[in-house]
Design brief:
5 strands; five-stranded mixed sheet
């Protein structure tokens, strides 16, 4: 069987043709050429040098690579860069900076919502998306009353909604506290 029969590009030293793409990342349009099989995570880290988004499991199971795409949280290791030309992508670097932290970044610092910090960018991006879901009235598995006009953001609700983000250091109580303080600040 030939390479063309099996679709095995690269098995004889061949390389895939590069795709020229334009990504809007953190309010900046960036142009790059990537192998069409390049994950968004690898495009961000390796091509755009945005190292805040972390590669944890590379299988969508840990949440370390979570970014916001059009305001929704997405595991960037599970999506291809070429799929996001018309999307607004926000990484941890786009949420705030040292002089002007995003409220969740400030809350993570104030609540000591991190230990080693490896999962923190994904946790924060996921929390931003999660709070937008709550604000939009999207219920979760833990939502006690799906008919209520406002979702009660209990600890159980926060834990359920953040369950796709793993913290190997087990800073979960502080992560929940950071999210709760931010949510209460937004509502109050």
């Amino acid at each position: 069987m030939s390479d063309s029969d099996t679709g095995a590009a690269g098995s004889r030293g061949e390389t895939a043709q590069l795709s020229a793409i334009r990504l809007s990342v953190n309010d900046q349009v960036r142009r790059l050429e990537v192998d069409p099989r390049t994950s968004l995570l690898d495009a961000l880290r390796e091509h755009l040098r945005l190292s805040g988004t972390k590669k944890g499991c590379d299988h969508g199971q840990c949440g370390a690579c979570t970014v916001l795409i059009n305001g929704r949280r997405v595991n960037s290791c599970l999506t291809l860069a070429v799929m996001h030309e018309d999307d607004e992508i926000v990484t941890i670097e786009g949420l705030g900076d040292l002089d002007d932290l995003h409220p969740l970044q400030r809350a993570f610092v104030d609540s000591d919502g991190f230990q080693c910090g490896y999962c923190t960018p994904g946790q924060i991006c996921s929390a931003v998306g999660m709070l937008a879901e709550v604000e939009a009235g999207w219920p979760s598995h833990a939502t006690a009353d799906v008919t209520a006009p406002q979702i009660a953001l209990t600890d159980e609700e926060i834990r359920e909604r953040m369950s796709g983000n793993i913290c190997r250091c087990a800073a979960y109580p502080n992560i929940v506290a950071a999210i709760r303080s931010t949510a209460e600040g937004d509502r109050g």
